[in-house]
Each structure stands twice: as structure tokens, then as C-alpha cells.
Design a protein that fits this description.
single chain; alpha+beta; Ribosomal Protein L24e, Chain: T; 3-stranded antiparallel β-sheet; 3 helices; elongated
């Protein structure tokens, strides 16, 4: 019983010291990086742009309303993705290669009409796409 009471007194004194004198509390070295008192460098603006997973000509996106039905007729949600391909195409009027993300149907449309006619038909500006060297 004496050991238990001694332990309780020791813990209460240790807790009182920790709460009453917070200035003496030492931050571990591993936590220095997370302290708010150090100046934080401004974040640089990223040059990388995350492109959407859609056809840049037709605007096709993934079908998120699809369900798979098993033999026992249990229905599960699934996503039907678009058959996308990165294409590097020569644009004669712009005198440069452009990098496009096209679906298979979009690529067939470009092959059928040509690059300028296809993009004019769907009212998409070719100047917005990056030049590929």
C-alpha cells in the first residue's frame, strides 16, 4: 500500500511540474521540423498540370454509373474507363507536334477528317495543347 501511495504522489508531482512550468518542456529533436515558430518558406508554384482523364477531342469520360452483375445477381458498382491513348501528332498549320490524349473513337475521327477539321468540328482550340519537341 505504501508503494502505491508513493507512486501516486510521484505522478501527481510530475504532472504538476509539467503543467505549471511549460517553459522548461524540451521539444525532441525529431519534432523541430514541425514547430510553428520557425519561418516557413513560401510554396513554389508547380509547373506540372494534372490533366483530366478524358478525350480532349470528344470529351468522353469514365462511366461511373455502371454496375457489374454476378451470376447470383449481386450488383456491384464499377467504373468503365475510356480507352485513352497519348498521341503525338504533327500539326501542319501550327508547325509543331502537339501531344493529345485521345480516345480510340477520337483518334479514328482525326484519321478520317484530319487534325484541323476534326478539332474545328468539335470546336476545340488546338493552340491550348503543348508543343512536343
Amino acid at each position: 500500500m505504501k508503494a502505491f501511495s508513493f507512486l501516486m504522489v510521484f505522478l501527481s508531482v510530475a504532472l504538476a511540474q509539467a503543467f505549471l512550468a511549460p517553459a522548461t518542456f524540451q521539444v525532441p529533436r525529431a519534432m523541430d521540423a514541425f514547430s510553428t515558430s520557425s519561418p516557413v518558406a513560401p510554396a513554389r508554384k508547380s509547373l506540372m498540370v494534372m490533366r483530366e482523364r478524358k478525350c480532349e477531342l470528344l470529351g468522353k469520360r469514365a462511366n461511373r454509373q455502371c454496375r457489374s452483375v454476378s451470376f447470383s445477381h449481386i450488383r456491384n458498382k464499377k467504373t468503365q474507363g475510356v480507352n485513352l491513348h497519348e498521341k503525338r501528332v504533327w500539326w501542319a498549320e501550327g508547325s509543331k507536334f502537339v501531344r493529345l490524349r485521345l480516345s480510340t473513337k477520337g483518334w479514328r475521327t482525326v484519321k478520317k477528317y484530319g487534325l484541323n477539321k476534326a478539332f474545328a468540328k468539335f470546336e476545340v482550340d488546338l493552340h491550348q495543347f503543348q508543343a512536343q519537341h
